[in-house]
Structures are given as C-alpha cells and as structure tokens.
Amino acid sequence: MTSPVVSSRDLPHPAREEIRLESVLHALSDPMRLRIVRELAAVGDELSCSRFDLPVTKSTTTHHFRVLREAGVIRQIYRGTAKMNGLRRDDLDGLFPGLLDALLDAAARQAARVGV
C-alpha cells in the first residue's frame, strides 16, 4: 500500500486521539488565542487568517495559530492562497464534553465584566 501524497502546504494536526487536555488548556490560556477561538465559535465556519484583526505582529499571529493547531483546537487548511481556520468542535466536544462551551461562556462573561 502506498502512502498518500502530502503537499508541502499540508499542515500537521494531531489526530483526535492524540489531543491532550493539557495542550488544549495551555493553548486557550493566552488572551489572543482565546480571542481567535471565540471568533471562530461565533462565526461557526472557517475564517481565513486575514479575517482576524489582532493587535500583534503578523509573526506573533502566525505563532498563535500554530499553537492552536498543534494543540488540536483548530484545523488549518489551504484553499487556494488563503489559509483557512476552523474550530475542531466535534473533536473537542467528543473528547471533553462541555469543556469548550464552558470556556467560551466564561470568556464571554469575563469580556462583559472587564470590557474586552
């Protein structure tokens, strides 16, 4: 059996069974990464990297997306020249039922309280 051809533009993602709670919590502990996840959850669809207006440099933004991808929180794929980002909600909900919703709810309540 031959291996599937992997494009140089394919990005590595952990398989569902490789996603660890510690990695997810670490990824979501940063305010910028939590902001990215909140935006993806609110839209409920994929967004390109350019759709996020973060108050950090492009290289820092790239780092945040990489941390989220490597933790298994988001999936990134290229569609043409755009790198699209989608929340791995099914995987996260299957592995850690209620965690994502609880974190998103807590983040929304905090944002309302502190005005973020």
UniProtKB/TrEMBL annotation:
Residues 13-107 form the HTH arsR-type domain. GO terms for molecular function: DNA binding; DNA-binding transcription factor activity. InterPro entries: ArsR-like_HTH (IPR011991), HTH_ArsR_DNA-bd_dom (IPR001845), HTH_MetalResp_TranReg (IPR051081), WH-like_DNA-bd_sf (IPR036388), WH_DNA-bd_sf (IPR036390). Keywords: DNA-binding, Transcription, Transcription regulation. SUPFAM superfamilies: Winged helix' DNA-binding domain. This is ArsR family transcriptional regulator. It comes from Streptomyces resistomycificus. The lineage of its organism: Bacteria, Bacillati, Actinomycetota, Actinomycetes, Kitasatosporales.
